[in-house]
Amino acid sequence: MDRAKRNKRNYLQAKAAFNTRELDRCANFYAPDHRLMSQQHASPSIRNFFEQTIATWPDIQIDVEHAVAEDDWVMGKSIARATHSGTALGIPATHKLVRTSFWDLHRFNDDGLIIESWNLMDGPSLMRQITPDTGARTIAAYETYAPTYTSLVNATPSEFDAAALRRFATVDMEVLEIGSGPGYDADFVEGLGARVQRTDATRAFLNIQEARGKRCRLLNVITDDLGGPYDGVLALCVLIHVGKDQIDGVLRKIAKAIRPGGAFLVSMRDGDGETLGEYHTVYWRRDDFAARVIAAGFQLEWDAFNRDRSNEDWSVFLARKPS
What we know:
alpha/beta; Nuclear Transport Factor 2, Chain: A; Rossmann fold; 2 domains; 5-stranded mixed beta sheet
């Protein structure tokens, strides 16, 4: 048997032994001086590495889908399935069953033992599966941050935002504002002669507006009925917290709440991907988000790009529901 075939056989047998928890047998496929190259710090022994992995994922099973061998190297692509039973990626156990892709590259010595390994997990996929509800976490973060947020934002819209709001609002227009925050945009729109129903998913913002003499009701755009119909919906700096797997449903819900001929003004962070910290923030490229707005039943009337005073890039869209 040539070296490549032998190494691939040993690689597959090591995986099989790990899946049946024959850890000593599995470790025997690794050289005594084996190094885990993908560790940023001093790597543990391979047996300790197995034990640490099983402590977090007790029922983990790794199913090899592809394995390619050449000379002293074997590369594998697998699917890992396990229950999240310990802290991983900084997130305490959720006891969720997860499934994610896993790649590993190994160099073998002359005896057919693994001497160096590189492991790569699909971290973003894993993070999405074990992260607690991002909407609830974002709302909880704003409950604490609302007073600071209110002190940092200008009570008067920027020149760019004011121009967009003037395009949107008309006299006697009945507007639903989603994510009112401290309510400064609503103040401006009411100054243009519109009537605004202020809403926010964060009670702290409701309290801030109440202290200003404004009425704002609790509303979560993802889970709650929006009521209506309204002449327009205003959603600035808020749908950035709606996941990409939820945005189509939210946009359809907004379209349903607007009268034929009504307007929809929305802003979205311009870019790619999402952040999964305290404030779940989603980024969209202009054309991709415009396509989602149109697919929800709107006609795109105007849009513009803006870089705000914090040097963050935004796309702003004015859309209309066909009459």
